[in-house]
């Protein structure tokens, strides 16, 4: 008898319908989800996989994304109760699996989502904020598990199957207690620092109540409880010392926990001295409270179940199931969370991590013993920096260094402000109050007519917001005074009035201070660039102040320097090139040939809102300022545009600036690099002045020329590092200089190619263009595959690139294409003149440079001003690394004049090969990217500013802003963009 054929598997639609029934979706939402799936399945499921996953995994990701969109964008209007955590459980996905691919899926179907749900569909989904909240809770739960296991015996939840003991689940009880506290005080837990204070308060409560037999330590000689008083161990002070928490804030959090326990369990908090038990022996009980029957053997299980029921029914975050974050299998892995530490257990992974400059900094961090002196020469210990460690150490700096400062300008700052043409002290203090109220609003959402959301500042608790405003204002006054001192010593500055009366300068400094306060606490309520939106600034504005902020705040912890460096990279790579950036108001003056293109695309920035407009937005009154904005706004003298500049919607005329600038003789068409050294020494007055104002330092150039020169130099430095890394990954390091030169010429002569785009898009095309011109076997697929391994990689960089288009009626519009379409349609026509010289083979100057090299010795690096990373990978196919010897060992081995030796780590280049041959092979590989080490590398304190180079040269390095100035051929006169 013939075998019966297997029944065909159910269609995609049938499997999706079964999932909707399983989740209990209503007919309206199910119908919406089915209709959306029918529209997007071609784009999401046509390819065999998503991000290298199997077809089954791709289908589950597609189902989860479609369901979440339908529920969030349509279902919430119909009161659908299905949450994201339930959708992910139904699709058998983890949080990190979902968030990792959602942006990529959204890019594929953004036009469909926009047509169905409007242009704000991405903001309504709140995926970025949810991901930040998931990472925050994952970091908090990871910290709690580790801290609990340091103090108590492991609970059954953390043990291997079959090894469970009778140890009560005190770890679960503590986590549920924390979640109960969150549900009652959600405004206190929207940042990581508050979460850690809440968890440490829970640990203190557990130490008081859990029987001593379940501890992992004894009181005598304990390394966990080291703070002693005359009456015994001080639990609160010891925990604060261990976890860098504030003792005052921890006691406040314990008080809130006691109140929550009293309300929920109906118990009365008693002084520990009234319920003395054996587990409190040798402990100072002054000020400690306890509850009878909270964790007794008879009532523990009942209280645990009661807490669990509360957590099941009450989750303030709505979309998440907070109970499951205690499970190792459910929370995102450490390397997938922001700032998470990487597991270095595997030697190969360790070497690959060390080969990446960014990852090296993240995983080989040093924490100074004193937060007030991070650059001190004291003893330094190497630790593995986690998000919690980073947050708590920077919060300690904010608490001990900044919070102790006066809440008004110091006497020296008041003297500087009053020495201007008029006393500016009152203006400065009022401005701080207004701008910080815009960033940290203390009015209730009901008063302001707003709604509370994940990224809504209205959700701030008023005491929390007031504390953050105070910290930001103190930091602002401190840095402002340091900048004024430095500027007053600049020989080019005769008067501080132009700078101190500049509205944009002050707002940038306030915004930077507020952003550092938010970054310190790692809040998920206001995520960058929310601080720009609140203050009316653009990304280009903020990029002007970052380097000066770092230079003038010497106590700034390395983690906050890294944060500012990361922000500056984002500003340089894409945000400053977006429509509405004030960069275009400077470009239109510095590069008159670009005026018509900027006006045609409508890229100019809108006027910065005045202070009275900020007051009106917040609906509060400041003495001396009107409560409502003036209907006719006078142009401020420091606006980043000419007062007569028309800045309206893109369909209106913008020819006034272009005509005026074309009548003005253009400045000298020097290459961007030619005035780098002079630009480095420019006073801040020139940087923040109106673009059309003549540079006060001298010459015929406008202030716009100075700003554009500095900005372009930073772009070149960032691009040089990324080009070098990418060329090493694709194993064509010898093409690094060529790719860089093409990029530099495009930035200088085809600047419009960057408008509304990401610099990495131009870098990828430059690399592929050189490969095509030189007839190298390097397909775009391989370039993208290697680019995905870069730390800054985002899918939209190569999947969604802005391209100008016109419809049938000739109306200007836009579309987004992939990197290959962009290369063929836009890049090649614009960059062809710069690629053609390479089509005939090696250029004469390349042959000349090659013939001048001494055989067997490393040639000078094409990027001599970029920092050495140590250890440095010198082979793409072998795990071979080189590193300069530490200075302390150099002094013992080498004479002062001989400093070019290398220490090598890694595997041999060939099996059973002698060391001398290994070294010869390594030396030959160094021929293309090695260099003599002629400056000391500080192995103990390496910051991201050293890596990116955009925050200044370390250790007295070259002040040149161009990373390839040493090898650049004589620059030709810049040709205007066509």
Automatic annotation (TrEMBL):
Domain of life, source organism: Eukaryota
Annotated ranges, domain Retinoblastoma-associated protein N-terminal: 66-209
Region (Disordered): 625-650, 838-878, 948-978
Function: Regulator of biological processes that recruits a histone deacetylase to control gene transcription. May play a role in the entry into mitosis, negatively regulating the cell proliferation. Formation of stable complexes with geminiviridae replication-associated proteins may create a cellular environment which favors viral DNA replication.
UniProt keyword list: Cell cycle, Nucleus, Repressor, Transcription, Transcription regulation
Pfam families recorded: DUF3452, RB_A, RB_B
A GO BP annotation: regulation of DNA endoreduplication
Family affiliation: Belongs to the retinoblastoma protein (RB) family.
Keyword Cell cycle applies: yes
UniProt protein name: Retinoblastoma-related protein 1
InterPro entries recorded: Cyclin-like_sf, RB_A, RB_B, RB_fam, RB_N
Main location: nucleus
Compartments reported by the entry: Nucleus
Skewed-composition ranges (Polar residues): 952-961
Biased composition (Basic and acidic residues): 641-650
An example Gene Ontology CC term for this record: nucleus
Spans traversing the lipid bilayer: none
Domain called Retinoblastoma-associated protein A-box: residue spans: 386-587
């Amino acid at each position: 008898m013939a075998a019966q054929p297997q029944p065909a598997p159910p269609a995609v639609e049938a499997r999706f319908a079964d999932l909707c029934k399983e989740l209990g979706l209503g007919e309206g939402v199910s119908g919406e989800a089915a209709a959306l799936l029918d529209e997007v399945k071609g784009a999401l499921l046509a390819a065999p996989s998503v991000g290298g996953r199997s077809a089954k995994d791709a289908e589950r990701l597609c189902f989860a994304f479609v369901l979440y969109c339908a529920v969030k964008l349509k279902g919430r209007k119909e009161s659908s109760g299905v949450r994201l955590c339930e959708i992910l459980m139904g699709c058998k996905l983890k949080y990190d699996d979902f968030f990792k691919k959602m942006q990529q899926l959204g890019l594929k179907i953004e036009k469909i989502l926009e047509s169905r749900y409007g242009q704000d569909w991405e903001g309504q989904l709140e995926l970025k904020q949810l991901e930040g909240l998931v990472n925050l809770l994952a970091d908090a739960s990871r910290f709690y598990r580790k801290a609990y296991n340091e103090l108590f015996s492991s609970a059954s939840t953390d043990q291997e199957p079959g090894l469970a003991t009778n140890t009560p689940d005190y770890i679960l009880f503590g986590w549920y207690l924390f979640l109960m506290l969150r549900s009652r005080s959600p405004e206190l837990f929207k940042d990581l620092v508050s979460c850690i204070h809440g968890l440490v308060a829970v640990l203190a409560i557990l130490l008081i109540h859990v029987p001593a037999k379940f501890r992992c330590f004894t009181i005598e000689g304990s390394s966990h409880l080291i703070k002693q008083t005359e009456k015994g161990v001080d639990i609160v002070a010891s925990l604060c010392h261990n976890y860098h928490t504030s003792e005052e804030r921890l006691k406040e959090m314990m008080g809130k926990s006691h109140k929550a326990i009293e309300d929920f369990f109906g118990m009365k908090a008693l002084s520990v001295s009234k319920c003395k038990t054996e587990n409190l022996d040798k402990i100072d009980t002054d000020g400690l409270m306890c509850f009878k029957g909270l964790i007794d053997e008879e009532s523990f299980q009942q209280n645990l179940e009661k807490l669990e029921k509360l957590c099941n029914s009450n989750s303030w975050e709505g979309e998440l199931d907070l109970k499951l974050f205690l499970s190792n299998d459910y929370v995102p892995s450490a390397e997938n969370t922001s700032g998470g530490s990487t597991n270095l257990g595997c030697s190969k992974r360790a070497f690959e991590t060390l080969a990446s400059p960014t990852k090296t900094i993240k995983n080989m961090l040093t924490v100074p013993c004193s937060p007030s002196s991070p650059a001190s020469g004291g003893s330094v210990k190497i630790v593995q920096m986690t998000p919690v460690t980073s947050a708590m150490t920077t919060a300690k700096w904010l608490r001990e260094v900044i919070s102790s400062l006066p809440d008004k300008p110091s006497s020296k700052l008041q003297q500087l402000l009053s020495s201007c043409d008029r006393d500016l002290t009152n203006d400065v203090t009022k401005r701080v109050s207004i701008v910080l109220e815009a960033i940290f609003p203390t009015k209730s959402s009901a008063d302001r007519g707003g709604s509370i959301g994940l990224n809504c500042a209205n959700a701030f608790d008023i005491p929390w917001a007031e504390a953050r405003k105070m910290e930001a204002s103190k930091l602002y006054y401190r840095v402002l005074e340091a900048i004024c001192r430095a500027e007053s010593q600049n020989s080019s500055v005769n008067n501080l009035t132009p700078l101190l009366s500049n509205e944009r300068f002050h707002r940038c400094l306030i915004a930077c201070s507020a952003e550092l306060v938010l970054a310190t606490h790692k809040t998920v309520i206001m995520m960058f660039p929310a601080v720009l939106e609140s203050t009316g600034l653009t990304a280009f504005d903020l990029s002007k102040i970052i380097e000066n902020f770092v230079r003038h705040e010497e106590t700034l912890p390395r983690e906050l320097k890294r944060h500012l460096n990361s922000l500056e990279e984002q500003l340089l790579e894409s945000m400053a090139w977006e429509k509405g950036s004030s960069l275009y108001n400077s470009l239109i003056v510095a590069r008159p040939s670009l005026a018509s293109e900027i006006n045609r695309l409508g890229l100019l920035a809108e006027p910065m809102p005045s202070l009275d407009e900020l007051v009106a937005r917040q609906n509060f009154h400041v003495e001396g300022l009107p409560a409502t904005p003036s209907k006719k706004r006078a142009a401020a003298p420091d606006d980043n545009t000419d007062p007569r500049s028309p800045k309206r919607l893109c369909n209106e005329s913008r020819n006034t600036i272009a005509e005026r600038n074309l009548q003005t003789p253009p400045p000298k068409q020097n290459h961007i690099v030619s005035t780098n050294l002079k630009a480095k020494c420019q006073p801040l007055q020139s940087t923040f002045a109106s673009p059309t104002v003549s540079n006060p330092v001298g010459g015929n150039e406008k202030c716009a020329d100075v700003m554009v020169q500095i900005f372009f130099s930073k772009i070149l430095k960032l691009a040089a590092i990324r080009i070098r890394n990418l060329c090493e990954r694709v194993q064509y390091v010898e093409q690094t200089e060529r790719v860089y030169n093409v990029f530099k010429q495009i930035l200088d002569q085809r600047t419009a190619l960057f408008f509304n785009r990401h610099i990495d898009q131009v870098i990828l095309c430059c690399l592929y263009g050189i490969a095509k011109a030189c007839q190298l076997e390097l397909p775009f697929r391989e370039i993208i595959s290697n680019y995905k391994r870069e730390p800054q990689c985002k899918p939209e960089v190569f999947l969604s690139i802005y391209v100008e288009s016109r419809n049938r009626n000739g109306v200007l519009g836009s579309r987004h294409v992939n990197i290959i379409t962009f290369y063929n349609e836009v890049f090649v026509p614009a960059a062809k003149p710069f690629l053609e010289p390479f089509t005939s083979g090696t250029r004469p100057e390349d042959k000349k440079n090659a013939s001048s090299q001494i055989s067997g010795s490393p040639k000078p690096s094409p990027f001599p001003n970029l920092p050495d990373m140590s250890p440095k990978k010198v082979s793409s196919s072998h795990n071979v690394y080189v590193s300069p010897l530490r200075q302390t060992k150099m002094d013992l081995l080498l004479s002062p004049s001989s400093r070019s030796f290398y220490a090598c780590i890694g595997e041999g280049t060939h099996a059973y090969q002698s060391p001398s041959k290994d070294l010869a092979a390594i030396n030959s590989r160094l021929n293309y990217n090695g260099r003599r080490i002629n400056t000391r590398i500080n192995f103990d304190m390496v910051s991201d500013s050293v890596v990116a180079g955009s925050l200044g040269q370390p250790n007295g390095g070259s002040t040149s802003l161009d990373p390839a100035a040493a090898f650049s051929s004589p620059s030709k006169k810049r040709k205007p963009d066509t």
